[in-house]
Specification:
Mean pLDDT: 92
Radius of gyration: 17 Å
Structural class: alpha+beta
Number of strands: 9
Strand order of the largest sheet: 2-3-4-8-7-6-5
Shape: globular
Oligomer: single chain
Distance between the termini: 9 Å
Helix content: 25-40%
Low-confidence stretches: none
């Protein structure tokens, strides 16, 4: 497996702890309070709202992800979550195959290629699905957008995902997600 570090732009991304207790925080609530106090210094009401969002984000994080990041830019324009998984590379698969959704997209899959200093190339995909497609028998309550980006480096395959029913939020997240992938440094 490839060794790497991730150093996200903390003005946009808040790394989510994988487990509690950990070396810094005993509980999700303690983490949320700490993050809220650091982010919102002068407005107690806004800090309380931010803490509430932080608790919701941490309680619904994807436990299967290698890394989870809360998109919470300083300007407060939007919020979302991205998850990063790192796999042993499968050279027989194209990056287009890696970003292909495991469901039938309601919209035409949109693919784009982005030049990358870390990976050479990042392939990104945008698709949509209904909640009914993911949970059989569940009524279609909403349409969810999905951005998936993938790049190869060393012996690793890096896959970054974001899901949101607000596709405007996803659109805002695209460039910061590319920057998040570019913040990865391969160490061996």
């Amino acid at each position: 497996m490839t060794n790497y570090t991730v150093e996200p732009n903390l003005a946009d991304w808040i790394p989510l702890p994988g487990v509690f207790p950990n070396e810094t925080w005993q509980t999700p609530e303690e983490w949320a309070s700490s993050i809220a106090e650091a982010a919102i210094k002068d407005d107690e009401e806004t800090r309380g709202l931010f803490r509430k969002y932080a608790i919701d984000v941490i309680q619904h994080r994807n436990d299967q992800a290698d890394h989870s990041f809360w998109f919470a830019p300083e300007d407060g324009s939007s919020m979302g979550v991205a998850t990063l998984n790192v796999y042993v590379d499968e050279p027989g698969m194209t990056l287009e195959e890696v970003v292909a959704p495991p469901y039938e997209s309601l919209s035409r899959q949109q693919l784009d290629s982005v030049a990358s200093e870390t990976f050479g190339e990042i392939i990104q995909s945008f698709t949509t699905f209904s909640t009914e497609q993911i949970v059989p028998g569940e009524p279609a309550r909403s349409v969810v957008g999905h951005i998936r980006m993938a790049g190869r480096a060393g012996r690793g395959l890096f896959v970054l995902n974001a899901f949101d029913s607000d596709t405007v939020t996803l659109a805002i997240m695209v460039d910061p997600m590319v920057e998040l992938l570019e913040s990865i440094t391969i160490t061996s």
